[in-house]
Amino acid sequence: MSNPFPAQDVWLKLLGRLSLDVAVEGLLLVLGWYLFTRGLNIAADVYLRRYERHTLLVRRTTRLIELCIWVGIVPAGLLRILQPDRDMVLAILGTAAVAFGFALKDVAAGVVAGVVITLDRPFQVGDYIEVGGYAGEVISIGLRSTTIVSLDDNTISIPNVTFLTETVSNANAGNLSCMVVVDFYLAHDANYEQVKTILWEAAATSKYVAIDRPVVVVSKELPYGTRFSVKAYVADHRHMVRFASDVAESAKYELRMRGIPYAHVNISEAGIM
């Protein structure tokens, strides 16, 4: 009499092939993959301490190597160890599909979103992004989530599904530099040319500025005064806060020395915050 559940026979056949040697080989394969990827990331961190300008290239390369190992070498190694026949492969795939659909639907949605991010490329490792109220540098893009590091050095894990429903702001789009805007609110009678020179020099002489990018100062008249905005690029987006602080410190000193008055306004009423 034939078995009404042929898949059960396939799994029993597969389990019958398991032995201590097979288990050891499988564990060694997984351990080898873990140690290699761990060592790869440690080596990358050591290298970047000396050659920080290569951050984007190194992070992308290590990510690509890890993905190739996970997608190609690990499954190939497991197939070589287990040596399943056609029925076993179909049984494994069928069981995995059922488990994937019923028990891991949220994870599956994250994986699909991760694939979409990889193909659409709204951002990449090394970019400074803002999404869902969080902002930071992308340090890894996984199949389920993306990890960023904020300017406060907090590590934040964002589910990839978020990027399909939220607006993503990318400050540098694959480049190491990005624009920083620093605002100053001064009185209406402030001398425009004098203020423009002070603010331009404060940004252009900062050690964090990208010297090959332009520095621009623009103004806008408001009911309570004039807003002067310094727009410049930092050489490294990780120095955005330091650059803004450097510009503010230098500019405020010169404005005070020249006797240029600030605008007198209630910040909350003006809607600045």
What does this molecule look like?
By secondary structure, the chain is an alpha+beta fold. It folds into three domains: 6-103, no CATH class; 121-170, SH3 type barrels; 178-270, 2-Layer Sandwich (Alpha-Beta Plaits), CATH 3.30.70. Helices cover 52% and strands 18% of the residues. β3 and β4 (155-159) form a beta hairpin. α1 (6-17) packs across α4. The N and C termini lie far apart (78 Å).
Main-sheet strand order equals: 4-3-2-1-5
Q: Write down the domain tally.
A: 3
Radius of gyration: 28 Å
Describe the main β-sheet briefly: 5 strands, antiparallel
The pLDDT mean sits at: 78
What would the principal axes of the Cα set say about the shape? elongated
- Derived from helix and strand composition plus strand pairing, the structural class reads alpha+beta
Q: Counting H and I runs of at least 4 residues, what is the number of helices?
A: 9
Extract low-pLDDT stretches.
Answer: none
Pattern of helices and strands: HHHHHEEEEHEEHEEHH
Query: Strand percentage, roughly?
Result: 15-25%
